[in-house]
Amino acid sequence: MGEFTTFECGACGYRAEHVRWGAGQLDPRVRFLPAVCHHCQKIVEVELTGRDILIEEFTCPDCGHAVLFFEKGDSYKCPRCRAPGLGIAQAGYW
Ligand SMILES: [Zn+2]
Ligand SMILES: [Zn+2]
């Protein structure tokens, strides 16, 4: 089951809402992961459906630059100001 995730930085006020994380409730083949685009300095959701995270390169849906995926268990840094301790909350399922 996929979660909608909210990311919030207490240092600069950066906020990303409704970022899909995981596999779809209705169709588990549909997968999304949050990633950081350093070009846009923001968190974007990247669709992984039918793709291999280990061998493929993934790009920002907005600007086309390569992105870095979030991994559960990382200590999250704000994509805008790089402050550690980015707050993460779940806001429902998709
Ligand atoms: Zn920040
Ligand atoms: Zn971008």
Characterization of the model:
- The chain contains no helices and six strands.
- It has one domain (3-93).
- Strands 1, 2, 3, 4, 5 and 6 form a six-stranded antiparallel sheet that branches.
- The protein has 94 residues and is mainly β.
- The site of one zinc ion (ZN) has 8 residues, from loops.
Short description:
The chain has 94 residues and is mainly beta. It has strands at 3-8, 15-23, 31-37, 42-47, 68-69, 87-93.
List keywords for this structure.
single chain; mainly beta; 94 residues; binds zinc ion; six-stranded antiparallel β-sheet
Q: What's the gyration radius in Å?
A: 13 Å
What are the secondary-structure elements, in order, as H or E?
EEEEEE
Strand content: 35-45%
Mean pLDDT across all residues, rounded? 92
Segments where pLDDT lies below 50 for 5+ residues? none
Major β-sheet annotation? 6 strands, antiparallel
Q: Please count the helical segments.
A: 0
Helix content: under 10%
Helix and strand layout, with pairings?
Blueprint: E1 3-8, E2 15-23, E3 31-37, E4 42-47, E5 68-69, E6 87-93
Antiparallel strand pairs: 1-2, 1-6, 2-3, 3-4, 3-5
